[in-house]
């Protein structure tokens, strides 16, 4: 997309156009206010000091994380549960590069972020000036779009475009790099209320012909299945999905990121699909004759070996991003549209539900024969039962965030997400260190909700500095460390695929998490049995205070069932208790 989009004919906001001479830093704050920004997450430094000075005089709520990575994961958690863009501000050089993981994470999981980075002054760009980094070059492939402001008069337009691009179509991160001298320049720019981006026109309306094709396929189908991804959540289409499913009586599989888009306790829900999905979900994806993908991207962790993915299916794919259609899986009925609009359109056509009684009965039987299971012996807390306890005590209504690893998969399998926007996880990038700070952002977005951060003992140690933020803001985040003294998921792969050579996956030395919490003035507990866990969880998950609970889980428990790398959906291992 061109940065030099025409601005001449744009509608200007006459209420603010008379702001008079203003400097770039004040203009930055005013531009954020125009976008109704209520909170931003950031960390100051030299190149953004003028922006922070303007913020001091004209405040917008600013959350001072303890590391830029904490700030951006918090912004992601905020965006995921609020539906509003997360706003981040960091300084040039190391401030900006510390954001790179979070920006990539947001890009992979389609989260709307507007990220501001400071830059060295325009006169010294390219001279290896102090704290200079080529943030535009670095973030080009990991942003939906990025800008460097070269004229302060462009700032209102750029900010307005950035919020538009981040939040429309397939959401994603947009970055604005602001050289230090821009903040000091004086101008009389106009605020715009429209965008003119000829190269960026997301299509929301489904094509009637393709929708009719889908109707034709539905009428014929004997083994239909819906694969519902995060696109359902982004499009706020859960209600429509439920209506469609109930009308058509089609079984539903969720992707990892799509959990909560369809109620887990619904009789037609088959579970999560993919590497650690349920046997029934994967069986359905393997045997289906009509696969309707709504807002999922056919990620390899979902499909397994593509040669064995839905081999007999007519594939329909509804996605707002045309680049997703046919990317990994041959698609027969492409519907480029907003998921909600597409579902409404299909339901507006009158036709009978597919005749799939036999199929539903078969899947139902598989659900009964091959449920998720857990070991019953061995020392330590069963991680699966622990998750069931957390579900029960929070009445299935908490916002739950995770890090990446075994605990993430157990949460996905066992929490049982019945509502949209309760589930915050790093799916595409699989970022350890994401879970805890994203819970902070989620709690800031939803102060009245119970927010539970499920963290691995290793992942938690990547961003635990944000305990300072929990203490400072008195956020009642519930931090539950699934402690197996290991990089559990790495250990699992080494046990299964590397003949138990546990190379660098065990962590013999850890902080005393109880004392660590205490040092921040946060309650800490260590629990080693299911009885202790039940007692502490009951006492602490329902009140309005932060808590950290170090849960000693069975160190050798495996996440099952599983599709080994390179294998197909029909080749799950660990389906039955071993
Ligand atoms: C930043 C980052 N580094 C490395 C990995 C690879 N990795 C995936 S899971 C995992 C182990 C995580 O251990 P822990 O946080 O204790 O969770 P567990 O699997 O034990 O539940 C590792 C190292 C990753 N996903 N992210
Ligand atoms: Mg671990």
Automatic annotation (TrEMBL):
Keywords: Amino-acid biosynthesis, Branched-chain amino acid biosynthesis, FAD, Flavoprotein, Magnesium, Metal-binding, Thiamine pyrophosphate, Transferase. It is an enzyme of class 2 (transferase). Pathway: Amino-acid biosynthesis; L-isoleucine biosynthesis; L-isoleucine from 2-oxobutanoate: step 1/4; Amino-acid biosynthesis; L-valine biosynthesis; L-valine from pyruvate: step 1/4. Residues 212-345 form the Thiamine pyrophosphate enzyme central domain. GO terms for molecular function: acetolactate synthase activity; flavin adenine dinucleotide binding; magnesium ion binding; thiamine pyrophosphate binding. GO terms for cellular component: acetolactate synthase complex. Its EC number is 2.2.1.6. Residues 23-136 form the Thiamine pyrophosphate enzyme N-terminal TPP-binding domain. This is Acetolactate synthase. It comes from Domibacillus aminovorans. The lineage of its organism: Bacteria, Bacillati, Bacillota, Bacilli, Bacillales.
